[in-house]
Prior knowledge:
The complex is a heterodimer.
Chain A: H1 3-6, H2 15-27, H3 31-43, H4 48-68, H5 74-97, E1 104-110, H6 118-129, E2 132-136, H7 143-153, E3 157-161, H8 170-180, E4 188-192, H9 198-204, E5 208-209, H10 213-233
Parallel strand pairs in A: 1-2, 1-3, 3-4, 4-5
Helix pairs in contact in A: 2-3, 2-4, 3-5, 4-5, 5-6, 6-10
Chain B: H1 5-10, E1 22-27, H2 31-41, E2 46-51, H3 62-73, E3 79-83, H4 92-100, E4 103-104, H5 110-115, H6 117-123, E5 130-133, H7 135-139, H8 141-146, H9 158-162, E6 167-172, H10 177-190, E7 193-198, H11 202-209
Helix pairs in contact in B: 3-4
Amino acid sequence: MSEEDDEIILSELNDEDLVQQMFDDLYDGLKEEIEESVNILLERGWEPYRILTEALVGGMTIVGNDFRDGILFVPEVLLAAGAMKGGMAILKPLLAETGAPRVGKMVIGTVKGDIHDIGKNLVSMMMEGAGFEVVDLGINNAVESYLEALEKEQPDILGMSALLTTTMPYMKVVIDTLVEKGIRDDYTVLVGGAPLNEEFGKAIGADAYCRDAAVAVETAKSFMARKHNQLSAG
Amino acid sequence: MTLDDQQLTTDGLALDPSAGQVLLIACGALAHEILTLKRINAWDHLDLTCLPAILHNHPDRIPDAVSDAVLRHRSQYDQIFVVYADCGTGGQLAATCDALGVEMVPGPHCYSFFEGNAQFAERTETEFTAFYLTDFLVRQFDAFVWKPLGLDRHPELRDTYFGNYEKLVYQAQTNDPKLVEKARDCADRLDLTFEHRVTGYGDLQTVMASLKAPNAHYS
Lengths: 234, 219
């Protein structure tokens, strides 16, 4: 059998098979194929939000699980993320137009003195995929930068990331400043990064430490649900 | 003793007991430097065993590996010293060493103690966009950087990893023109500017010099 005979024609797959194929293509980091499949589903009348959640987030959840279980490694996750980003670039403007549900809003950034953003970028992307509006402050953020963004954006969640043992204590500087200003309880503070752990998160006064992007999404959703319930009860 | 870098990376260095009363449990990436300092200073009271250097890429595994080694060897030595800095463990290695009652090298990582912790800390404000390599890491660049990051298979990921870095600093423990050239090549491959900085052994030498043979054995 020639290679040509093996080639999958995405447009010839039914919806169910196409979504399964998108899971495979995300897993293999095939950006062009993901973009093509997103466009096919849009042409077939799928709502952008449904493509995002069922196909892209569904596929990335498999990638995230296999990363957690040591089956996939960072390079493969980054390629998958690149493919998802390609699909999201098509969907993002359409999501706004079609009034997709917004779960909450997050300001996120890597702390001062730290330039590492791979984990933070994955969290941003997965949070967007889960329906959060994300304002990404990038790398090397001093406390002033976080404060300014909090005031301007009025998010539900503040996310901070650090990869270095030398920079992770800066998260406490930010949280202590929020306490001093009397605004700590206005936000859910989530922290993450390779050298952190749950104990550290508690010690610095964060609401939660998130081990990876999938945990960040679940934790954020759970805090939003709690907030929603408190508001309803109030 | 001839050291095999590949073996130091994956297996570490088995203990070769001599008359030493102090055991150094070290990262395999430091074996050359520790044995050189031991030889030139005639520190015969120090024995050495190394854990696989590749743990550098999995800091979460370092505390347990160190703990296992300490428990395995502690009955044979008067004193054990852990030749690791924090090394990305986020304070977990220090907590482990405290619980075991053993000391370790101060500082965040070997890049810091080779340069001298105080001097490295002074540079932090201005040098956080630097990527550091030591002699060992230059020699083992492919095993520690290129392949684990998947750059051999996906060179397009280079800027995802290194796009925020500006320069590669080669902290040289020895004077080896071939290593300088190799380090320069590493910088080129990562598309970073290159700086060659001779550090020598820095605080590693100071720390090892402070490990005196327990007096009891001289009485």
